[in-house]
Amino acid sequence: MPEEATYPKIKILFVNIIAILYKATALNVSRLHLDMREVKQLVHMSKQEIWMRQMFIFLISGLLLIRFLLCFVGLVTNIVAIYPILTNSQPELLMPSIFVQLFDNVILNIYEIVLGYAAVRFLQPEGLAVFAIFLTKMFIKTSCCISVL
User: Fold this and answer.
1) Largest separation between any pair of C-alpha atoms in the chain
2) Residue 94 and residue 59: Cα distance in Å, rounded?
3) Residue 1 has what pLDDT?
4) How confident is the model over 109-132, as a mean pLDDT?
5) End-to-end CA distance of the chain
């Protein structure tokens, strides 16, 4: 009987440790800086008005910055979530991790899809095939993230 109860706990602990390691590798400030510079260069290549380009730079840079900050928050909540997984006590410590994952993996993915569509529609109207591939990738990613929750 105890072996049946420990298998889900080990599985959850393994997923949590992998998430911690992934988020720790994603915390790279120099990569964030390069991504921010690349956004500005790519958006300025479009032939749209200056206000539209500035709006897209703001929205895309905001998405990158929020994802980066959520890596910190997600890392902390995943570390805190190890205690209730190992001890089977204080399950309320799992709630922040669930909320962060929900926001990061579902809400921001939907925001990214909408922003991707707007970028293709307004900045690069000839890239509709690229958007179809992007939409398929984001649909699969969001579906997997929801199933993990």
Assistant:
1) 67
2) 31
3) 43
4) 80
5) 26
CA angle 135–112–117, rounded 5-degree value: 55
Instruction: Work out the angle at residue 106's Cα, subtended by the Cα atoms of residues 105 and 110, and round it to the nearest 5 degrees.
Output: 120
105: left (phi over 0), alpha (psi -120 to 50) or beta: alpha
**How far are the Cα atoms of 38, 58, 127 from residue 51, in angstroms, in the given order?**
18, 11, 21
pTM of full prediction above 0.85? no
| Mean per-residue pLDDT over the chain, rounded | 81
Q: Is the dihedral of CA 116, 148, 78, 18 positive or negative?
A: negative
Chain-centroid distance, C-alpha 52: 25
Cα–Cα distances (Å) from 56 to 39, 107, 145, in that order, read 9, 19, 26
CA distances from 118 to 34, 36, 124, 139 (A): 23, 18, 9, 17
The predicted pLDDT at position 149 comes to 62
Per the CB < 8 A criterion, the answer to whether 113 and 140 are in contact is no
